[in-house]
Amino acid sequence: MANNFTTSVNIIRDTDRDFNYIPTPNASQVVSQIVNDFKKGIRSFNVVGTYGTGKSSFLLAFEQSVKGIKRYFEPNFLANPKIDFVKIIGSYTSIVEQFEATFEVQTNKNQQENILSEIFNRYHSIGKENKILFLLIDEFGKFLEYASKHNPEKELYFVQQLAEFCNNPKHNIVLITTVHQSLESYAYSLSKTQQQEWTKVKGRFREITFNEPVEQLLYLASEYVAEHFERKTSKSEIEKCLKLTTETKAFNFNKDFLTEIATKLYPLDILSANILTLTLQRYGQNERSLFSFLESSDHTGLAKFNKKENPFYNLSNVYDYLNFNFYSFLISRYNPDYSAWSSIRSSIEEVERAFDSDINGYIKAVKTIGLLNIFSASGSVLDLNFFIEYLKSACGISNSKEIIENLEAKNIIRYRSHSKRFILFEGTDLDIHSALMEAGNKISEVEDIASLLNKHIQFPPVFAKQYSFLKGTPRYFEFKISDYPNNYYPTGEIDGVVNLVFNSKLKEIDIQNKSKLQEEAIIYCFFKNSAEIKNLLFEIEKIQKVILENQKDKVATRELESINSAQVRLLNYYITDSIYSGGKEVKWYFNGEEKQIENKKDFNKLLSQVCSFVYNATPVFKNELVNKHKISSSIHTAKKNYFKALVNDWDKENLGFEDSKFPPEKTIFLSLLKENGISPIRENATDLISINNDSSFFKLWRASEDFLESAKFEQLKISELSELLKNRPFKLKQGLIDFWVPTFLFLKRDDFAIFNEDSYIPNLSVENLELIAKYPEKYSIKTFNIEGVKLDIFNSYRTFLNIATEQKFDNNSFIETIKPFIVFYKQLPLYSKQTKRLSPAAIKIRKAIANSKDPEETFFEEFPSALGLTLNSLQNDHSKLQNFTSNLQETVKELRTAYEELVKRFEDFICSEFVGQLSSFEDYKKHLQKRFSKLKKHLLLSNQKTFVQRLDSPLDDRKAWLNSIAQAVTGKTLEVFSDEDEILLYEKFKAMIIELDSLTKISNSDIDEANEEIIGVKIDSFFSKIAPKVVRFPKSKSNEIEQLKNELKNKLGKDNTSNIAAVLNLLKELLQ
C-alpha cells in the first residue's frame, strides 16, 4: 500500500492528491453545524482548534466531500448545487493584498470594494441557480497577526466587510477560516478601542470549536493500527491487559469504548495507548503528532520496537519514544512536567548505581511508575498487585514482584497508602513518620474547626437545577463554614448560602430557632459530631508543622506536601460524604424546619424548594442569553437593537420585526413582552398599558408600578428600583434587570418626569435607555401627582397659554405646557434676562423659568411662591387662583416689555436733556443731526466720527438707530446691556454731545485750514469762572511751539499729579 501520510496538509498543493482521511465524529459534527447554520442564513465561519488537530485535512476532506470526489461527510447544502472553491493559505502579510492578488484586482482606487466586486463576479459566473462559492482561508491567524501590527484599522475593516458581504443570506457565498486560537487573542497588543473593534469583527463569524478529545485520537489510532499491523498475540492476553487497565480507574473512559478498540490497538496495550495520546496532546500537536508516531520508522516507534522482550508496546516503550522524539522539549524549562521527567531520569541513574543485574527490568518499572504518576487520574489504584501483573503481562518481566520490592528497599520508589500508588522517591534524611509523631506533641488540640476548614476547603457554587429549569433563572448557592449560624445576604451571581456549622457547644434547637428567624435563602447544616474531621485537621496541622521546620529539605518538603494534599482531599471527602449521606450526625434546617437529605439529588431538590419559597415573585423567563448575571457582547448588541426598535417602532406590530426572521432582539421582545400580554402600542397617551393577570411577570409589574407610585411624593433614583429587583422576593439576574427597567420606564414614560443628575429629559431616546441600564444611579424619576387644586392651577396655565384644558395629564401635557415658558425665556434679550429693574415677583418668575428642571416643581411650587402664594392658600381660597393667573400675566408682560422700557428711557433721556421736550423719533433724530450739521467731520477723532456717522445714519428703524448710537458710545447694543451699562450710557452720551458742541463752535470759526491750527480750551473750577477760549496760531510756528513745549516738559518734576496741576494753573493765568 502506498504511504500517503504527511506531517502537514496544504489545501492548495494537495487539492488533487490522494490522501487517507478518517472522519471523526467531531469533524462530522462540525460539518453538520456549518450546514445547519448555512440554512439559517449564516455564511461566515471561524474554525478554532489547537495545533495539529487536523484543520487543514478537514478543509481538504470537506472540499472533496462537497465536490463529490470522496464522501467523507454528507454536506447537504442545496439540491444539485453548482460548486466553486477559492482557497487561500494565510501568511504574515496583508490580507487585502492577498485577496487583490487572488482575484487579480489591478486598481488601487476603491481597493476593498473592487475585491468584493470580483468575489461576486466569481460567484455569479458559477451558474444561474443553486450555486455556492466557498472561500476557504487556512492559517487565517497569520493574516490577523500581521493586521495587529500593521494598519489594524484598515486590515480589520476589510475582514469585517468580507464577513458581512458573505453573510448576506440572499447569496450563497460561504467563508470558512481556521485559526489556532480565538480572534481576541490576536489583539492583545492593541489599544482598548482597537480591541473592541476586534471583538466586533469576531461577532460577524460563527465560531466553531475543532479540538479532538482523547477518545477521538484513540479511535483514529485504533483504525490505523488495525489496518497496518498484524495481531500476533492471543485475544485473552489483550483482554487481560484491558481488565488490568479498567480496574486501575486511571482514565475516565467508557468501558465499552475501550473494549471495542483494545484489539484494534495491538501491539499497543490500552494503558500505553491512553498515556501516549495524552502526552501527544500535551507535548505535541494532537493528530499530527499521533500520525507521526504511527508512521515512525525509528527504533522507538511502533514498527521497530523490540517485540521479543516486550509482549506489548508498553509504557516503557512510550517513554523511550517520547525521550527520543521530544527530548529537547522534555529537558527544557518550558515543559510543564519538567520536575517529574527529571525525577524519572534521576531514578534511572539511581537504578544503574544500585543494581548490578536485571537493570533493564528495574528501568522498565521506573519508567512505568514515572509516566503513570504524571498522567493517571487522581484516585487511581496503582498498587503492588497492579504493577506485578502489568510488568509481567505487558513488559515481559517475570520477576516483577521482586523488582518492585527491591526498588522499594533501595528507597528508589515508595508506596503511598493514602493515594494507593507507588511514586519515585529521590531520598531524604528525615524520618517523616517520626517527625509527624513529634509534631503531634508540639501543637495543641484542634478547637476552632470552622477557621481551619475555611483554610483547607473550598466548595464550588451549587446550581439549583429544578428551579432553574422551571423558571429559567439560574440560581447558585455557595457554601459558608462557620462556628455559629450566621446571617448572609446573597448578592450578585450568588442566590443563596449553605451554612455548614461546626460547634460542639451548640444544640439542634439553637440552629432551628436561628433558621426560623432567617428570611434570606440560607440553609443551615449542623454537624453534631465532628470527631473524624477534627482528627483529620489535627493530622494536617502536624504535616504543616513538619513542613515549616524542614523547609530546606526539598525532597522531604515535596513528599510532605503530597501527603498534605492527600489529607486535604480526604477531608473534603469526609465533609462531602457527611453532607449527603443522610446520617444522624448531620442535621439540615430551613425556615425553622428540619429537612431530610439522603443524597445529592435530595440536596439539589432542597435548593430548588428554597428558591421557590424565598424568591416567589421571580417571573418565568426562559431566555438563557439574557437571564444571567453578565450578558455577552453579542447580547449587548441585541439590547441596543431591541431598545432602538422599542423607541422608534413601538407603534408597530411586533416592534416592526420581520415575521420570518428571529434575531436575538426579537426573541427578547417575544419572551419579555409579547408572551406576557404587554403591548407598547397605544391609540392615545391616556391609554393604559397593562399585563395579563395570569402572567408570571404580574408581581414584577405591580412592584414596578408601586415604585412609580412612591415617586409621587419624592424624586427617586432608578437605582432604587434596580436594587429592589436584585433582592428577594425577586432576585432578578442583572441581565434581565438591564432589559426590564428601561423597558418598563419606556412603557410608562408619560406617567413621570425623568432626570439625569437634575437635568430634565423631555423624551426618552435609545441612548437614554442604554445609559439607564448602565448607570441607573445617575437617573431619577418623579411621578406626576396632579389632582384637586394642582389640576386647577395646571389648567389655568393652559388657559393662559390658549391650550385646551384636560382632566388627566401626562408627560406630554407637561412638555406642551412648560415649552412656551422656556421658549419665551430663551427669546428674551440678554438685558431682560439679567436686569434688576423689575418687580420682585417678575424677578422670581424669571428665575423659576430659567432654572426649571422639574416641570411639576416649577408649576406648583416656584410660580405660586414667586407671587407670594402657596398651594394651601390657593386650595383654601379659590378667588386667589383668579388673582394668581392675572398676576402671572402681569409679571410675564413685565418681563416681555423690560427691553422696550430700556429703549423708551433712552429716548426720554435724549428728549429731556438735548431736545427740551418729548418728541417723536423722526423729530429728535433730525434735531441731533441738525445740531452737528456744520461740524467739520474730517477733523474728528475716530470715536467722534463714528458717533456722528451713526447720528446721520438713514436708518428709519427706531430701535436699530438707538442701538447703533448706544454701541458707538459704550461698545454694546442695548440688548446686551446690564443695569450699570445704562447709567454709563447716559454719562458717555452727554459727554460726547458736549465734546461735539465744543468742536462745532470751533468749526464755526473762519480759519485757514491749510495755514492755521485751532484749539478749543475750557477749564472748569469751583472758585473761578473762565470762559471757553479758542486759540489760533499759524502752522509756521509749529517748530517754535514744539521747542517751547519740550523746555517746559524738562522743567516738570516726577509727580504726575503735581505736573498737571502746575500746567493747568499756568494755563488758567494765561487765559484770564
TrEMBL record:
Q: Which domain of life is it from?
A: Bacteria
InterPro entries named among the record's database cross-references? P-loop_NTPase
Q: What protein is this chain from?
A: ATP-binding protein
